[in-house]
Amino acid sequence: MRTDTPLALQNSPVATDAIATVLAEAIDRLGVDATSPDRLLATLPFADEDCTGGSEIELQVAVRGRRDQVDLPLTIEASRYVDNLLKRARSGEHPEQLIHRLEAYLNDNRDGLWENSAVRFPLARLHPYTRDIFEKDLLADKNRPDLGRRGDSDRYLRKQQDGSTTARVPVSYLIKLALAEVIGRQRERMPLGLRQTAQGLLDHFLNDNTSPESYSFHVVPLRPEAGNGKALARETAKRYLLTALLVRYANHRFGLQESGQEALIHFAPQPPQRQRLLNDLVPDTFYRELFMSPCLSGWDRGEEKHHYMHLCHQVLSRSQLNAVAKLREAGIITSNLVVLPNLSNTSLANNGVHVSLGSRRLGRLRRQAGAGFAAPHEKCLGDLAIKIIEHFLPLFVGTFSAAPYRLDFADFHPERVLGFLPHELDYTHLRMLWRRWRKKATLSVFGRSLTPFGPHWLDRRLSGLFGLKGDFLPDFRLLDYPVCFMSTASSPALDGRQGNHQRLLRDLNDMGITDSQMSLYLFLKPREFDTVGFSGVEARHYSLFHSFGSDLGNAVSLQQLLSALAYKYIVTGQVTHADIPDDPQIESERRQIFFGAAIDLPTVFIRQASGNRLLQRILRRTANVRASRRYPGYLRVGNLEYRRALLAILLEDAAELIEAMRLGFTLENLKLRLDFPAECSTAGKLTRMILDATGARQPLDVGAVEFNQAAEKVYRDELSTTHLAEALTYLERDLQRLEQSACQGDSSIHAAFHFSVPGQAASSFLKTVKGDLLAGRLGEDALLKLINLTLFTTHRDQLRANRFLYES
After folding, report:
1. 452, 462 contact by CB (below 8 A)
2. Which helix (H) or strand (E) holds 322?
């Protein structure tokens, strides 16, 4: 029997009073002392030394090689899908055009790069220790070995005619095998602490989707002494370094290069252009067969998780198709001339960085049985804090992370470019955004905005004849991926009540937007103690960073500051749930500003009589706000002016937090990014790199295909080298500090360095091999030494973090 609150009671005075009561209890039991600035800082969640952090990164991979040597083209050619397609074409049941386009995809690959391909190598190349791990991961249930292998294990172990066995795995799992190989081949000689650390890292490398994922090797204390968010940036950089080293080690150790395969890995926010092309050529079932990872690592019942990821892809593909109906209901599509989205989509191949922050104080209160701080209190506070922080999220878009992207005129079908926005914004805001976007983009003919008709030949001619260039966006990933589904009138996502996500998921399931088995997509997701063992929030709105320290580090510091400020607002009574009503239109009203920033719209429109009192306060600080002539009853608000008002509010309301947490530089840096975006923002820096690669001065000076392909190459080559060089700088500093400690008599460091680089100083060895590593010339032995050094510094990082967390 369902026990949901009836629709009539969701926003009734009784329900509102109940939430206010729970919030008052939560504030009282939280025990924040606001009698003085010092006491406030010492007791406020996320302030001072209370905050911890962790990140999850998603990376792009490719395998370089000839068509007849790499798994992806070989799998396509040998597939039943292609065989049936050829038979139907010969019998005249299917047009040959699709065959020709598929052949062109396989043949026209000048760079020899096959994005998200698996790799193949002889199973005999694996050390027995690695083989044992592989066999365990192939079990149907890792806790029930008696059940045997999973039903699809023949996809990953293939018998050859000569009796040998070939392993076929995605690069995301190859990383884990490479780490296991490092352990297995040195197991008897490895210092105990180093070996235990390496073994503990095996499950931090996941392969549950298309892209390789990893999560932090340890909980990172975000303290002023360590630079707050820069401490997490350092951990993330070193994790990326280890990942890149393991991929290169696997190329040597498993004979990939010998057989014409070279695995590559790097940060990139968007699905590759060639993968988008292939997605348009094959059915959704075959796309999933090619690109959905097997979930061998990270789950006890990997095949079940693999089926769940298939469900996610099916549901999101259906969801994007259902969005077309919403566009018609919203009045954006007004005729039957529609280019239907593919029944398959590439949204799950978008890559971002998720940052989770935890409060030690909230965690302690949840652990203490006598504290009276229960799950309902945690939920009520957490939801309100998220609603507050959402108002400030436009500060991050393009400034600290970005995904620059070009759209040609022919791309501007609303059913395509608006992506998942029909499920994320109210119809009123969706119409306003679409109209403003069309005005901003280069789509005008004799003063009238024009969108493409559908036939590519006609759209190309119109584009050339009238100079219709389309548009450039600072962060297209935020539109191409469902970052935040909108609440329904009966099931708000952030009203402070337990079970609200499950209620909303049931509603969205009924509407064909998502599936109730899936996790709810939100900008900021509560991280609840009973589920994950700590209390905090996960930010999922980050795309690509140009730099670990400058971009990721400052972004996390700002996220920490906003979390502390949100709790300050709550405990001092400045903001309650009633100040930000849980109404879908009010929710959409604040979120449209975020999406407007992703598109780089100059203005948004907000109701003069908005019931959102926090938003009204922000608008009173925003310059150049005026009544809209087009939309009576609405205010015309500049996006940049709104963000500058947010910065001014931070400097005023969080002054004591900024000083105590030593975040003055972060706010100064943010101001520069807002005032000089081309030079200082992440979007500006990434765009300049791409333009330099094309020789163009402005994004609209080059076509969309050329710009987006150049972006992929920049991410794969120049930016990847920049990221590796920065990570090596962190490693070098760690090695120098450890060498100083070794000189003071720390025998464990002596032993680890002697094992890793016998007869050499660790920092000197790094300087010697750095150039070859960045140039891609480093051999297997030197790679192994670098991996060992990175593992050892990680081991020391873990010890230092644990001492702080458990002794303070």
Report:
1. yes
2. helix 302-329
